[in-house]
Design goal:
The structure holds 2 protein chains of 2 kinds.
Chain A lengths: L2 E5 H15 L3 E5 L15 H5 L4 E3 L4 H13 L3 E5 L10 H8 L2 H4 L9 E6 L14 H5 L5 E3 L4 H13 L4 E6 L6 E5 L11 E4 L4 E5 L3 H14 L4 E5 L2 E3 L4 H10 L2 E8 L4 H12 L9 E5 L10 H4 L3 H13 L1
Parallel strand pairs in A: 2-3, 2-4, 4-5, 5-7, 6-7, 10-11, 10-13, 13-14
Antiparallel strand pairs in A: 1-8, 6-12, 9-11
Helix pairs in contact in A: 1-7, 3-4, 8-12
Chain B lengths: L27 H5 L3 H26 L13 H10 L5 E3 L5 H7 L3 H8 L26 H15 L14 E6 L6 H13 L3 E7 L2 E2 L2 E2 H4 L5 H6 L4 E5 L3 H16 L5 E6 L18 H8 L3 H11 L4 H23 L8 H4 L7 H15 L10
Helix pairs in contact in B: 2-3, 2-4, 2-12, 2-13, 3-4, 3-10, 6-7
Classes of the chains: A alpha/beta, B alpha/beta.
Chain lengths: ~325, ~375
Amino acid sequence: MTLETMSFGKALNAGMRKALEDDPRVLLMGEDIGALGGVFRVTEHLQRDFGPQRVIDTPLAESGIVGTAIGLAMGGYRPVCEIQFDGFVYPAFDQITSQLAKLTFRHEGALSLPVVIRIPYGGHVGAVEHHQESPEAYFTHTAGLRVVSPSTPNDAYWMIQEAIRSNDPVVFLEPKSRYWPKGEVDLSASALPLHASRVVRRGTDVTLVGHGAMVSTLLQAAALAEAEGTSCEVVDLRSLSPVDYGPILDSVRSTGRMVYAQEAPGFTSLGSEVAATVMERAFYSLEAPVLRVSGYDTPFPPAKLEGEYLPDPDRVLEAVDRALAY
Amino acid sequence: MTSADPAIVRVLAADGAYVPSPAAEEYLPLVDALSDAELEQFYRDMVVIRAIDTQATNLQRQGQLALWPPSRGQEAAQVGSARASRPQDTVFPSYREHAVARIRGVDPVAIIRLMRGLSNGGWDPTDPANGNVRLYTLVLGSQVLHATGYAMSLVLDGKAGTGDPERDQAVIAYFGDGTTSQGDVHEAMVFAASFRTPEVFFLQNNQWAISVPVSTQSRVPLVQRGHGYGIPSVQVDGNDVLASYAVSRKALDEARGGAGPRFIEAVTYRMGAHTTSDDPTKYRGGDEEAAWAEKDPIVRMRAFLEGRGAAGSFFEDVEAEAADAAEDLRVRTVALPDPEPEAIFAHVYSDPHPLMDEQRAWRARYEATFETQDGGQA
């Protein structure tokens, strides 16, 4: 085991460096990813070390980035596109949902599209409009895409490499508020497959499920609950499409209660889908309805109000109390 | 666009007379180098694809196809540009490039598979038999960015600009006047200019985006769009197959040779409906259609060949080939089998996917509930 402590952002950088070293067909492309190293510095020094033909500063056009990445993939490359912020992905929506996602089907299997779309997403960074959104449901609703979101530096390091190795397009959602906290990365061996969910804390009374930055909120809530005598199990979804239901169902069959927490608006959200499936498959194990804790069904508010909007440990615990009250 | 327009490249007048425009001068060596056999092939291509196109339109009227977008009237622009391409080039069509596809090697019945509702694609672009023709793209303009990205891969791979015309590759992207308003086309030209892609933007200005005239798409001739991105651009009479061939040949040669992208506006006319679902009588008059019928690309080329002394038997031979191709299309279209339901799940992803496995298995169980005890269908 080779353990190294690094931030989530550095782990992503190291993972992409490894992918660039391992496969000469891997390219990075996006706005400001070269000399600047990206607005979050996630690609720092990669252009310096791999050259401007493998780490490509593109014109400022998201549809152009994804559309040309598709053409590059047709030419045998494995492009990794950086979308600068969550709210900037929509100009590329047609290229992602109508082209990238559907081209393998349109080709009746004759063409694979190994393209990764990296999107820093989510709140907690006090930014202006379009910089704190959680757009995952748009992409999980689209057949042909895979959608993942790591929550730890170790997952960031390994999941970016596995996403790049995938022969299908992957929307890779990076919880930007987690870019800076450090954690241990095991450089010697990947722990889990790309599409596996994982129990990150054991407990017996209530199952808490979430993805991305919300996993750390759930862990905080679990620690507070423990002090009050409630034992919470926490599951990190990791893969948003497809969802690995095994660990979630195992947990719910044991606890009988589940709360899903997410930053995104709750209406037709990932939490809605997971809640419905758990109800279908674990109905007789449930002691209470599956509850959701979400962002409100509003635009992401001005930054001074984000603390009111984003689910925090207290809102998670309020749902835990409701689940336990049945 | 009139015959007095000095900037347009035209070799043949509407009556088939060899009367090159001033702008055509530099292209004449390419035209004059064409053999009789090549000239006759251009004509043959146009007549045969029109017969196939007419047959497909009729097949839709008879309920055999969901939809057909006719290419009638645009044969010269398509045949000229396709015959100017080299085998190693790659074509990114929109959805009306039936002549281009056929010349490059795509079986017209493959296009029928798309339009009959059997496939969302129709053919395998990675099969060399299909002449590097990528699939039709129905969201207008999306394919132009794919073309630019593919051309970027040629630059990265050193597959253009080596100076070896037998090996260097180029990309040609087809789109229409309406599509020039799409952001993707503009972004593609930005990327192409920035990365100096070996690529020809081939615009067929057929005057109508369904019901909206080109004057609503642009206040200036569309050829000026290319200039705005620093891309050398030329306007050609798209109903003149010789001029269309020559400008395409030069642009593709330059792109292949590493000079960067080129833009061609081929001025033509969609003589038929936008698709079989369209009704042009709602938005354009018979006078306009009659005026463009006078400039029919096939009539023009036939008059030119007759003026050069082509034999009557040649034209009879071409008519017979066209009739055979149309009949062949009918016979093979109505014999096409419906896809198996498994096709719903088969190629959504390249790698294994649990949701596909689950839904495939569920469907099998559901279907099994309709089976009788002796194994037949209830």
